[in-house]
Amino acid sequence: MKIGRNEDCPCGSGKKYKKCCLNKENGYVPEEVMKYFRKVRARQEYLKRAGILVNYVKPTMYKGRKVFALGNKIYPNCPPNTTFHTFLIQILKEIIGFNWFREQAKLSLDKRHFISICFEKFGEWIVKNEKTAERVSESIWMAKPDGYTKSFFSLAFDVCSLIHKQKLPSSLLNRLKDREQYQGARYEIAIAAIFSRLDCDIQFTDEKSKSKHCEFVARHRTTNSVLAVEAKSKHRPGVLHQIGFLSPIDKLLSARMTKRLFNNALEQNPKDVPFAVFIDVNSPMTPDIPINDKPWVKDARKLVSHKLDSVPPQEYPLSAVFFTNFSYHYQTEKEAEQGESTGIVISHPKFPPPNPEFFEYLQGALNNYGFVPPIDIEQWPELAD
Which of 276, 284, 269 has its CA nearest to residue 340? Predict the structure, then answer.
């Protein structure tokens, strides 16, 4: 029997036949289904721009508790108001050690570790913003992080990203908890986490080896490309547990990148695979100055150019060098600015670099460093350009 287009659909959906099974019979996909998949694709592209190519499973509710997954482990007993961000912080506290945080809290401020200070300031930031922040739901709110909070969230996401890939050496974690070794270990974790989020397998090198060696070797799972990586962070007096007094801001901004730091990084080249160097300039951020006009960017490019001029074509020891400025610690209780970065991909290196598209994703990850995707809510913040 022929069914009229405007009659009720015999499937019992309550819709008219023309808007239900008639369309399905003709191979039509309902608009709500198309809308869902458009949303999924948009979020995937959004995460790609942020350098996140691995999957972080959206939490689910079970018997009144929230269930998270990280790496090969399930966390089934989280309070229902736990967000992805607070879950990451809970894992960070667990992996560093609750006793470590308790012992740090007993110390005077000048003896305490920067991570411990960030944790305390994070609590103050919550009290300051919770009542006036934008509400996502009755129990979830959003606010702009300050420098301490941004530092803390970034560390939590980095550590959990390495846990997600099951690649967090105990030796690296111990260095992170050591005041004197914190800065170098923190930057190494940041760069390793970026590569892990780009869906790379990370192989850390033997720290006990007396010979020169890079920090780790990354293998991109999709293209099977290999890249050896060295990471260096510039030390400054009075900053991040370094001995001395903090220089005035104008002096910090005009301080030149040392050749020694760059040359030391080059010495870690394994000399048998493509090699990339990452150097953090550890300088106050200058959001009002275009990236190409920043003093440290000009200085960094001169440094690389000078080295290029002294090496014959196709013998340059680098595939690429990236200079970053992930210095949220200077912003303390002020609203955190987005980190800064610039990359230089070498045209004719001794060893050809990975797929050029991979370096594009890598630069996107550096440009958006500090972004933690709120995978458990609908409303996401804007990314950096």
Answer: 284
